[in-house]
Amino acid sequence: MAKARILVVEDDDKQRQLYCEELTAAGYATLEARSAQEAEELLSHEQIDLIVLDINMPGISGLELLPRIHEIHPGMPVIIHTAYGSYRDDFISWLADMFIVKSPDAGGLLEAVEELLNRKRGVTLGQ
């Protein structure tokens, strides 16, 4: 079975690199975007299975990109991964499948990725 392809949309170079390293070590293929514009470009011509999306980015924010993702790729699993828990109250953030507040431990992100990919494949935990 092919590796799931995860698009990490994060403007902070060190955080993006860390998430990609952790996801790669967990067996996923990663693509990187520094901005919403780069993410849209990748989404137009790459096969992507799941998106990890930051909110606060220069230019177009993650919250502005989220409805576009759903227009272009309905059903695409999206994890909002932000340092600001207050965005959880923004109605647009509810379009995401999961909302995770950033942590120095990438374990929560990895668990969320696995859960959403299993859900996409129709696999329930414990099977």
Task: Please supply descriptive tags for the structure shown above.
127 residues, alpha/beta, Rossmann fold, five-stranded parallel β-sheet, globular
CATH superfamily of the domain at 29-113: Response regulator
Structural class: alpha/beta
Q: State the helicity in percent bands.
A: 25-40%
Q: What's the total number of strands?
A: 5
Radius of gyration: 13 Å
Give the percentage of residues in beta strands: 15-25%
Biggest pleated sheet: 5 strands, parallel
The top-level CATH class of the domain at 29-113 is Alpha Beta
Strand order of the largest sheet: 2-1-3-4-5
CATH topology of the domain at 29-113: Rossmann fold
Q: Name the helix and strand elements from N-terminus to C-terminus, one letter apiece.
A: EHEHEHEEH
Fold and architecture overview:
The protein has four helices and five strands; from the N terminus they run βαβαβαββα. It is of the alpha/beta class and 127 residues long. It has a domain at 29-113: Response regulator (Rossmann fold, 3-Layer(aba) Sandwich). Strands 2-1-3-4-5 form a five-stranded parallel β-sheet. Helix 2 (36-45) packs parallel to helix 3. The longest helix has 15 residues, at 107-121. The mean pLDDT is 86.
Topology:
Blueprint: E1 5-9, H1 13-25, E2 29-33, H2 36-45, E3 50-53, H3 62-72, E4 78-82, E5 98-101, H4 107-121
Short précis:
The chain has 127 residues and is of the alpha/beta class.
